[in-house]
């Protein structure tokens, strides 16, 4: 039984339905037509493509149905200081050089500020071009990946059609009571406000910020991280798009937070995430509206949230996936990725042989690690720049998690980057943000000096030329989308 029909609910329903019998025939999803979905969540990470493949989604179909565009990474504007820009691309910055990560030579040669030039996705994105990566692992065109931007409500509707087609039962009604077994504490039944009641054996809570089952009925406490990530509100509004569609998200630092710009085929999604302790709602809305590329296409929506997660993700016979389990501001588009990870773990640990707390503990261990890794990566963005507004000064002055303090100190002392969660952001992502914000390590790997500096400079210059040459062969992003969308579609 899945509770909630937002992105999390329908992704979970479709993925579990695709596991096939014996699970598929027993999946029901209940959602309230009166309680809306959060309706934002338009930028993703490349892992969404694994999910779509698992769900049997044809890319052409998906691109048409959700008005999607391709995403090669994120441009960060004004984060280091006003006027400065850098790119976090979905790809590396070149292969190892003489057995060492290329970043050591970049540090040695003082090229940290030129990092984007060694990233194919960053260069293609800035040129407004897109083509999918090559399958030939030896090719330069295999050094990057891509994700999507899509219309969140179209994506949920699309998943709903596919899930119902795959056998998921759709129940519409508002849950007003959750009944638990008095002895075991397990959830047994949900009562709807029209007197219907539905029984189940396993419940997936996808009820959004309400966290109806895990946080509500089971009372699992919230691990609050708002002292590290104080942004707690957002305005979101779509506006008219332009003819060219940029194949990347833009994130622009502001007085007390940051704005997003997500170009889709039919419009641009915009939002302003801010800390209400440092900026009032009207000023935040004004900053968003002033920065739009075109006229707003709807009334701005106001959202409130809190950084952190539930202390348990799986308790008894209830697993929370999506906003019901926790939230970290969408700076690196990680929420849908966390939904994917939750779904994939649930499939892996599915209690086919009955409930066993070891499954829940293993699930929790992975998800807590995933949240902590993303938390550190997101906080990093606020730590190193030179913006002077009170919000930014406060962000730099406050204590940070020990794991992040160690990461920054390690990089500054040695140019090394420690990867604690290999399933999340890798070395190129950390390097993009660290160099992008202006971190300057005091040392690099001693073996980097074994190669003459001029030979390395020639090697790197050749890399830059190859990237520029390859980017010139890629089609403009809009042209690529139009050609793809025009291809015949195979429906799953
Ligand atoms: C400002 C902001 C920007 C974001 N941007 C991104 C982004 O760029 N990328 C990204 O990956 N993620 C982003 N996210 C997160 C993303 O929107 C969510 O992870 C995603 O939409 C999943 O939401 P959900 O399905 O968990 O909850 P919701 O969409 O809130 O759905 C909750 C569902 O539960 C149902 N429900 C609730 N209570 C009841 C009840 N009593 N009875 C019956 N049904 C009930 C509702 O009807 C609804 O169907 C963003 C979030 C915010 C707040």
From TrEMBL:
Membrane-crossing segments per the record: none
Pfam families for this protein: Trp_halogenase (PF04820)
Record InterPro entries: FAD/NAD-bd_sf (IPR036188), Flavin-dep_Halogenase_NPB (IPR050816), Flavin_halogenase (IPR006905), Trp_halogen (IPR033856)
UniProt-recorded name of the protein: Tryptophan 7-halogenase
Organism: Sphingomonas abietis
Lineage: Bacteria, Pseudomonadati, Pseudomonadota, Alphaproteobacteria, Sphingomonadales
């Amino acid at each position: 039984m899945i509770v909630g029909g937002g992105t999390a609910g329908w992704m979970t329903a479709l993925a579990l339905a695709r596991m096939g019998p014996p699970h598929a025939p027993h999946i029901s999803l209940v959602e309230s037509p009166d309680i809306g979905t959060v309706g934002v969540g338009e930028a993703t990470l490349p892992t969404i493509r694994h999910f779509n493949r698992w769900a049997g989604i044809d890319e052409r179909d998906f691109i048409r149905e959700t008005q999607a565009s391709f995403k090669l990474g994120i441009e960060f504007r004004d984060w280091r200081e006003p006027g400065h820009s850098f790119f976090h691309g979905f790809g590396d910055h070149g292969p190892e050089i003489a057995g060492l990560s290329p970043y050591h030579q970049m540090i040695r040669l003082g090229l940290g500020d030129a990092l984007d030039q060694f990233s194919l996705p960053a260069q293609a994105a800035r040129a407004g071009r897109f083509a999918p990566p090559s399958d030939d692992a030896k090719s330069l065109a295999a050094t990057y990946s891509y994700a999507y931007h899509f219309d969140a409500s179209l994506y949920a509707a699309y998943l709903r059609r596919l899930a119902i087609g795959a056998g998921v039962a759709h129940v519409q009604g508002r849950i007003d009571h959750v009944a638990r077994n008095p002895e075991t504490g397990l959830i047994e039944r949900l009562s709807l406000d029209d007197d219907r009641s539905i029984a189940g054996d396993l419940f997936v809570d996808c009820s959004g910020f309400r966290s109806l089952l895990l946080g509500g009925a089971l009372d699992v406490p919230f691990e609050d991280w708002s002292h590290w990530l104080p942004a707690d509100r957002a305005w979101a509004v779509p506006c008219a798009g332009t003819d060219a569609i940029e194949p990347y998200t833009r994130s622009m630092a502001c007085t007390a937070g940051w704005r997003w710009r997500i170009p889709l085929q039919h419009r641009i999604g915009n939002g302003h995430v801010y800390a209400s302790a440092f900026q009032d709602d009207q000023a935040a809305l004004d900053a968003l509206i002033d920065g739009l590329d075109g006229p707003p296409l709807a009334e701005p929506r106001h959202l409130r949230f809190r950084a952190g997660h539930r202390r348990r993700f799986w308790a008894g016979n209830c697993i929370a996936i999506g906003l019901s389990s926790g939230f970290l501001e969408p700076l690196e588009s990680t929420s849908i990725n966390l939904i994917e990870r939750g779904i994939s773990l649930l499939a892996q640990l599915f209690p086919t042989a009955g409930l066993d707390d070891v499954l829940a503990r293993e699930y929790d261990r992975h998800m807590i690690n995933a949240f902590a890794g993303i938390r550190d990566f997101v906080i990093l963005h606020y730590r190193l720049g030179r913006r002077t507004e009170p919000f930014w000064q406060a962000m730099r002055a406050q204590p940070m998690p020990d794991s992040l303090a160690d990461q920054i100190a390690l990089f500054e002392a040695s140019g090394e980057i420690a990867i604690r969660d290999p399933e999340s952001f890798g070395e190129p992502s950390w390097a993009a943000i660290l160099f992008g914000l202006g971190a300057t390590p005091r040392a690099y790997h001693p073996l980097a000096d074994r190669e003459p500096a001029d030979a390395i400079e020639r090697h790197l210059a050749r890399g830059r030329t190859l990237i520029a040459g390859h980017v010139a062969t890629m089609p403009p992003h809009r042209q690529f989308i139009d050609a793809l969308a025009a291809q015949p579609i195979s429906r799953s």
